[in-house]
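Standup notes, protein team

Yesterday: finished cleaning the Trifolium subterraneum set.
Today: Caffeoyl-CoA O-methyltransferase structure.
Blockers: none.

Input for Caffeoyl-CoA O-methyltransferase:
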Amino acid sequence: MEIGVYTGYSLLSTALALPSDGKVLALDITREYYDMGLPMIKKAGMTHKIDFREGPALLFLDKLLQDENNKGTFDFVFVDADKNNYLNYHERVIDLVKVGGLIGYDNTLWSGSVALSPNAPMTKIVKGLRGHVIEVNKYLAQDLRIEICQLTIGDGITLCRRIS
């Protein structure tokens, strides 16, 4: 599953890595972002592996969780949506991903701002969401249901392996 499609780059990468019968559920608030990457997805022959759903991801996740059969069925979830909802996403996807499965959170270094003083110069958007990113990093570090590894690739990716 991918929450937050944007240009479709990571979505296409995931689809390419899947076996021929693999599927990725892609969630985004707007189809515009999915359509942006669709030409490359088509060119790569990966449209059959992607199930795109438009709308608020939290509502969709809540609907998935209403059916007990969905719990523990996802191998991998990648979250790159609204940073202020990362904790809300985590509390839902932790039940959807199987034990031994992975959850990836993008932008967990947030332009390096997580290591800066709150008074350091930063753009308005970075400053506005910095607290949410710090909060999710702290929460993931103490969540006993997962083991984590933060990668300093790009803007930071935190990988969480569900252990219980």
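Follow-up from PR in the comments: The chain has one domain: 2-162.
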